[in-house]
Specification:
seven-stranded mixed beta sheet, single chain, 16% strand, 26 helices, alpha+beta, six-stranded antiparallel beta sheet, 880 residues
Length: 880
């Protein structure tokens, strides 16, 4: 080991022992010289004979240095030093190459780090992630759906492969919070979790304690570390303090460890015991800790058996049975396959940009290697092996990629600051973007692979210098190298065209969705959501509050119309109450499940949704009277294609105050025009059934409603609505406030993000392709400068030379377009399957791509040839 470390140290300091080596060689020469002098030689002849007997002094030194260190490491060190010196003499190339690589590598690293955080990393504070599992109902895409609370209870009692099982609400809830120090109530987000939640995860408190089994029936709360720091200034005296949540008093028992925001993406400010929640029998997300030695597959087998037993005990038909399943724990939870698919799509896009950068650098390095033919030939003439030359040239490229990889890591970290550009979500979300060792290894591997892929061919090409021709300064046109450089440029154009056309498809999809008539008028509509669970409202008080609130809203200055709705149109939300069946149809039709909404009077007038037949809800449609409903045209066409729907009856589901589901018969009093009730890009309008609020205000579904106001002349009344809600009940706050157009824009956020990302990367690729065209044209015609001098001397006009160069540049662009446009058309046709009613082949998009790249090719070629043709031909001929 001591010899190993000595040899390694000598690699780092190769000349450390040169003094001793000089003295030792001098001693050997002196001994040999003395021996030759004793044989009768003169001093001069003896010195000469001693040197010849010892061999070359410098060669001996090199052999000695190789023996006292690692020769391959020493060669690598020399290659790195030489490469750094060479790149330092070309700062423009180094900085441009590193910057272009930083974009491609940084984007790949950012996406990988997010996927890594979602799929392979646990939140701070969670212990032993590999023994955790997500538990739920298996769905078709391999993910998990939430399961009923009763199933969680049964799994907890029956499982032998799981040491502990916990449950939590599907999402954090907006809550009204007051700490008693002031009368103001602010909105925070809290999540209900079972009392063993923190114990199973292994999360420890910073101060105080966390939930335990004794807290099941106590009004206690655990604070998030960030919320504790913001609101209580990290005071340890917070433990034992009384706070009010939704008008109820809770005792703070502790603060969770720093960095723990929950098990998924949604962040919570506080956690409350799920066992105290009135709706604890609804669906929950569940997780578990595996027993030692138990795998996830073994747990899955037991869960499937438990699920079958529960279905059998409940007497459920086979069609309604839901198999229980488990997956390895991740922050993506049950949607790991969706995350993998989305991350894979983004990774493919940014990898294409990295491929453009690699092709650009490979073309430049290939051109530079041809320009260094004389240097390479001289090295070969002096005895250098061709493999050593390949390694030297490859090292220079790897240094550039190392700089690009390091810059990419910093750039990936900087992507965190792009968060404000994303749309505002209904709840706080924590997007993991930690640059851990796994991310660093990925970046290093990606940089190394890309560097070798980009630099190997140019390095092999550059090491094939003909020593005789190069040393005699005979021009080498290297037609193979020229074709290879042109191929790199064509590849850049192909990928850039592909990205830009796909980006144009997403832009058209967004514009098509926003310009399509959704069936309602979203202009001048504001939404303010209010959740009565923040206060103490039983069924009669709930209906009275909604009526009083909407009456006050109508009286606000500038309000033209106002109404209440469980779900505003145009977003992703919806109510899944169940199926609907029409009565009196022979033969009877099967039931189907439409979208549902609970709305107040004046809903259709406020949103300007036409009523095709019948009437709107009115004040006479109250609880205790004949149940009524309004259906959309799609429902009417399904059940009564050749008759009026008004006057017929349908069975509709009903949820009481405890969440129990029943059915009742409702009379259809109106038919409304179809609206696109979910994301506007999804396609045809969903069948829709509207129920009156005043006949359903005792339902648990009306605990939270949205106030829809239409204002005159673009006035904003959201602040006045917030003040009004606070005056009616100081424990209530507006959960969310936005315009209807902003809500619709959130539904289109994935398409907007993809369009922006793909378009930006496509423009970056086009810029790199322009640099590639410029580099190829400039190098090719600088090598043919002697030929141009002869052409000009023989009478050729400069415009003719320029036209010839521009023609060759357009040939490269044309070749790239000829390959890229069909690929982009195929990709567009595939993507258009998921974008409703959008033709994939848009003539204007393809014409625009051809025109844009044609102009880019002309500009790059003209800039490349301008310097060449500006030289005096006589001067060129004299210097040739």
């Amino acid at each position: 080991m001591r010899r190993f470390w000595h040899r390694l140290w000598n690699v780092l300091r190769p000349h450390r022992a040169d003094g001793d080596l000089e003295r030792e060689l001098l001693a050997h020469l002196t001994i040999l010289q003395d021996d030759f002098e004793r044989r009768g030689m003169t001093t001069e002849d003896a010195r000469r004979a001693a040197r010849m007997s010892l061999g070359g002094i410098e060669q001996t030194k090199e052999l000695h240095r190789d023996a006292r260190s690692f020769a391959w490491l020493n060669d690598a060190r020399q290659d790195i030093v030489h490469g750094l010196r060479f790149l330092r003499r070309s700062p423009a190339f180094t900085l441009t190459a590193a910057a272009s690589l930083a974009i491609g590598i940084g984007a790949n690293t950012a996406i990988f780090s997010i996927a890594n955080g979602l799929l392979a990393e646990a939140p701070d504070g969670v212990v032993d992630r590999l023994t955790l599992a997500d538990v739920g109902i298996l769905r078709g895409d391999g993910g998990l759906n939430p399961m009923p609370y009763r199933s969680y209870v049964e799994i907890r009692h029956r499982s032998t492969t799981l040491s502990a099982v916990f449950a939590q609400d599907m999402f954090p809830h907006a809550m009204g919070f007051s700490d008693g120090s002031s009368g103001a109530v602010q909105r925070i987000f809290g999540q209900y979790v079972t009392s063993n939640f923190f114990t199973v995860l292994g999360v420890r408190p910073v101060v105080g304690t966390l939930f335990d089994e004794a807290d099941t029936n106590h009004a206690v709360v655990v604070l998030n570390y960030g919320f504790w720091a913001r609101h209580f200034n990290k005071s340890p005296d917070v433990v034992g303090r009384l706070v009010r949540l939704n008008g109820q008093a809770f005792t703070v028992v502790g603060v969770a460890t720093r960095g723990f925001d929950g098990t998924g993406l949604a962040s919570s400010d506080v956690w409350l015991p799920l066992e105290r929640q009135s709706g604890s029998r609804s669906s929950v997300l569940s997780g578990a800790r595996l027993r030692p030695g138990i795998s996830v597959s073994q747990a899955c087998a037991e869960l499937a058996a438990i699920g079958q037993t529960l279905d059998h005990e409940q007497g459920l038909p086979r069609a309604e049975q839901h198999p229980l399943h488990a997956l390895p724990y991740s922050r993506a939870g049950a949607n790991r396959n969706i995350v993998l698919g989305f991350a894979g799509a983004l990774m493919t896009i940014v990898t294409l940009v990295l491929a453009i950068s690699c092709a650009n650098i490979a073309g430049i390095v290939l051109a530079r290697s041809v320009a260094r033919n004389k240097e390479m030939a001289l090295r070969l003439a002096l005895g250098a092996r061709r493999g050593r030359l390949v390694r030297q040239l490859l090292t220079e490229v790897l240094i550039v990629f190392s700089l690009g990889g390091a810059s990419g890591l910093l750039l990936a970290k900087a992507f965190v600051f792009l968060g404000p550009l994303l749309p505002v979500l209904p709840m706080p979300v924590t997007l993991p973007l930690a640059l851990d060792m796994r991310v660093a290894v990925f970046t290093a591997t990606l940089s190394l692979f890309a560097g070798v892929a980009s630099g190997l061919i140019p390095a092999i090409k550059g090491s094939k210098a003909d020593a005789v021709s190069a040393l005699k300064e005979v021009s080498q046109s290297a037609p193979g190298g020229s074709r290879l450089r042109s191929a790199f440029v064509v590849g850049q154009i192909v990928i850039s065209v592909f990205l830009l056309v796909v980006a144009a498809l997403f832009v058209r999809a967004v514009r098509f969705a926003t310009s399509t008539d959704p069936g309602f008028d979203a202009r001048d509509i504001e939404i303010a959501s209010v959740d009565l669970s923040m206060g103490s409202y039983d069924s009669p008080a709930r209906g009275q509050f909604w009526r009083q609130l909407i009456e006050r809203v109508h009286q606000l200055p500038g309000v033209e119309a106002a109404t209440l709705a469980r779900v505003p149109p145009g977003g992703f939300e919806g109510i899944g109450l169940g199926g609907i069946r029409a009565l009196g149809i022979t033969p009877p039709l099967d039931s189907f499940s439409p979208s549902w909404n609970i709305v107040d009077t004046n809903y259709f007038a406020t949103l300007r949704i036409p009523l095709i037949d019948g009437r709107d809800f009115s004040d006479v449609d109250i609880a205790g009277d004949q149940p009524v409903a309004i259906v959309s045209q799609a429902v009417a066409r399904r059940f009564w294609p050749h008759a009026r729907a008004v006057g017929h009856s349908v069975t509709v589901p009903q949820l009481d105050a405890d969440g129990r589901s029943t059915t009742r018969t409702a009379l259809i009093i109106g038919v409304a025009a179809d609206v696109k009730s979910t994301s506007l890009i999804d396609g045809p309008a969903d069948p829709y059934v509207y129920l009156p609020l005043r006949q359903n205000d005792s339902s648990i579904m009306t605990m939270q409603m949205a106030i829809l106001t239409r204002s005159a002349q673009g006035l904003r009344v959201s602040a006045q609505v917030r003040d009004l809600v606070s005056r009616l009940d100081s424990d209530l706050v507006v959960v969310r406030s936005e315009t209807l157009q902003e809500s619709i824009a959130l539904g289109l956020a994935p398409q907007r993000i993809l369009a922006m990302a793909v378009g930006t990367l496509g423009l970056v690729g086009m810029l790199l392709a322009a640099i590639g065209i410029y580099g190829v044209m400039a190098f090719t015609w600088s090598r043919r400068q002697h030929e141009l001098g002869i052409r000009l001397a023989l009478g050729a006009q400069r415009p003719q030379i320029v036209a010839m160069v521009l023609y060759q540049g357009l040939l490269l662009v044309g070749a790239g377009l000829a390959i890229g446009l069909p690929l982009a058309a195929a990709a567009s046709r595939l993507l258009s399957v998921f974008l409703y009613d959008l033709p994939p082949l848009h003539v204007l998009t393809f014409v625009g791509a051809v025109t844009l790249f044609g102009l880019v090719g002309l500009a790059a070629s003209y800039l490349a040839v301008r310097r060449v043709v500006a030289v005096d031909p006589l001067q060129t001929l004299r210097s040739a």
